[in-house]
Amino acid sequence: MNDRKGPHYSVIHLGPWEGWARHTEHHHKLGELDARVFLKHRLDLTSAEVSLNWFRPGEETPVYHTHRRNEEIYLFIKGRGQFQVDGETFDVEEGSCVRVSTPGLRSWRASPDEGLYFIVIQAPTGGLDTSGFDDGVVDPATPIRW
Ligand code: ZN
């Protein structure tokens, strides 16, 4: 399948999540990062940053961090690990979903015997107030039949 863009959409195909580990990204502060895909530039995102990530068994974030404007949502797809916010630690695994608000001092790691696949969404705090479910508008046109 080919990546494509139209006037109102962008599509990329990254393949199965097991393959995320082969991607690398350049982060403006952290340098080269392997096993990461940031979607902001690839999809021309303007409202959120979304990244697909893989941590090797035992890998952990090298530093704590907070955010200035964006809350973060972590969606754990596969594997097991631990998450830490403001000194509180809890386990995460496939299906765990974590929200951290801007001042939350956060860190996470994969378990020593299993890697951790996860998606991180960064979006402006309070942004959903104006763009939530009620933002959708039903159009009277019928979709083109497949
Ligand atoms: Zn962050």
Brief summary:
The protein has 146 residues and is mostly beta strands. The chain has 2 helices and 11 strands; from the N terminus they run βββββαββββββα.
Structural shape? globular
Number of strands: 11
Our Rg estimate from Cα atoms comes to 17 Å
Q: Unreliable stretches, pLDDT < 50, 5 or more residues?
A: none
How much helix, percentage-wise, in residues? under 10%
Largest sheet: 7 strands, antiparallel
Return the structural class: mainly beta
Order of helices and strands: EEEEEHEEEEEEH
**Proportion of beta-strand residues:** 35-45%
Overall pLDDT: 91
H/I helix tally: 2
How is the topology of this model organized?
Elements: E1 4-6, E2 9-11, E3 24-27, E4 31-34, E5 36-38, H1 39-43, E6 49-55, E7 70-85, E8 88-93, E9 97-100, E10 106-110, E11 116-124, H2 128-131
Antiparallel strand pairs: 1-2, 3-4, 5-6, 6-11, 7-8, 7-9, 7-10, 7-11
The structure holds zinc ion.
